[in-house]
Amino acid sequence: MSFARRVLKRITIPVGSLLLLFIGFNVFWDTAPPQVTCASCHEIESSSSSWAHSGHRALSCRDCHGTAFTNGIHSVSEKIQMVVRHFNGSDLREIKMNETQVVEMIDNCRRCHAAEYSGWTSSGHSATYAAIFLNENHNSTEQLNPDCLRCHGMYYDGTIQSLVTPLSVKGPWRLKDVVEAERPAIPCLSCHQMHRTGTPSQPPDYSNPQRIFYETKVDSLDVLFYDRYEKIHLDLNELPPVQLKAGGRTVKVSGDPVQRLCTQCHSPNSFHVAGTSDDRTLRGVHEGLPCEACHDVHSNEARQSCVHCHPAISNCGLDVKTMNTTYADRGSRHNIHFVACKDCHAKGIPKKKVS
Fold this sequence. Notes:
Blueprint: H1 3-31, H2 45-52, H3 61-65, H4 72-88, H5 99-112, H6 114-121, H7 129-133, H8 136-139, H9 160-163, E1 164-165, E2 174-175, H10 209-212, E3 225-227, E4 232-234, E5 245-246, E6 249-250, H11 257-265, H12 305-309, H13 341-344
Antiparallel strand pairs: 1-2, 3-4, 5-6
């Protein structure tokens, strides 16, 4: 045997063995139960503990997070750092996903929640960074500022200065990193937390009528508010109740906790005046109703909401389906968010008919 062949043999055997060991380890890691793989690592004890009590506990870590190589170098780097911390005994650091991981996870959400994903993609909540931060009408009337990222770009890893330029009401504006242009500014995890305490979905228990009664109390809401500054999800009951004024009076606001979530982003000015800024809290004839009374939770679709409550001809003699009720038309007198009796009855509100 030549010298070259002997050297090649001495290299091939150990390298081949290491490669087989590596492949075997990855196959084991990707197929074994989380309890003996990811969840056995004390570096992620906090995450694995919350997952064990979540509605997603029947899923494996890789179903949502992918494998150790799903996110390329970033993911491998994280795993290496965890191994280093494991052996040098340094302080545990709670794992936080970066924006790339959060956006890539949307596809994993879609695999199980196809209907919700379809609704989200058809809603304004699927807007991209380009649609939000390069909007000429908005940017020319209101200067971009750090608070924009509170609702549009909750997981953005930088600042408003590193995202878009110029920070002025005079454009043209451009994103500094073109990668951000087509990314959704409000991903699933803006309102959801996979490790949220809950129960896996189950078919209705028809043997127990109390469990299928439509007014059965929901144990926990599956929506939360992600605070980008604290990098945590807040329970809706931790959000402040909505308090609004209109014409010197206090506006009656729905007690629905989801209303608090909506108002975090669709909020009034600092004086809490109803209808200012992006506030769309209902006033007028619909005052006190929650957002979900008209809007689908994912698509925000409200097209059929009128006929859910009104007959074709309403109680006051008007066909509500012919009325321009959209908020998008600033000239609409019948904006569903604040239409009042006097908007239709300019000559005075008729008395109720007594049958």
